[in-house]
Amino acid sequence: MTRHVSSELHWGLLGPGDLDRIVALHTQAIRGMCPDQVRPESPEFFAALLEGAGRIVGVCDPAGDLVAYGVLQDGPDPGTRPDLWLGWPEDARIQKLAGSSVAEAYRGLRLQRTLIRRRIELADPDAYLYATAAPSNPASWRSLLHEGFEIRRLRRVYQDSLRYLMARRARMADTSAAGGDASAARSLDELLLDEQDRLLSQGWRGRLLAQAGCVLVPPEGAGS
């Protein structure tokens, strides 16, 4: 696989004229993946974002070819209402990291994580941010954990596909955060999904801890 230097890449917001190449990269990136791993998106979805329903960050190579993108969507998807599931304020400003793609030749450069970081910086300062990631797609949810997202729920969405619901604040500290008792943390890799679901419903949160890796942490004052 060809490796490229990330410093040679050019970053910027995409516009309506980029629709065809966004769709082409998305189609290429999800080839061979099932809906339980990644959500296929329609050209209409991307067109609406480019026309004002959100923003799309693009990454181009020195020749100007699109090699990666990341979506920041304004408001929640109707089927993934984190404001209802997570007890967010009724007037919360909600934005969603609604997917990204990286061309095969440019994988391994941590572009997924950089795209997450760029979209967090692009979001409204007071926004409640969320994303969904399939448990069967660890590259996606691990990247989100690395950039400060927490796993908050396990839900069936997108025509009954299983997804982690992940959230964080854009700039402000989340004062409702779990206590983070590392001594009681449990490794995600060692828990069946049913047990993860049970713990998440009790207020546990999935986090990345420096010494323990990807774990579920209980709310303050709670036992296992």
UniProtKB/TrEMBL annotation:
The lineage of its organism: Bacteria, Pseudomonadati, Pseudomonadota, Betaproteobacteria, Burkholderiales. Residues 9-171 form the N-acetyltransferase domain. InterPro entries: Acyl_CoA_acyltransferase, GNAT_dom. This is N-acetyltransferase domain-containing protein.
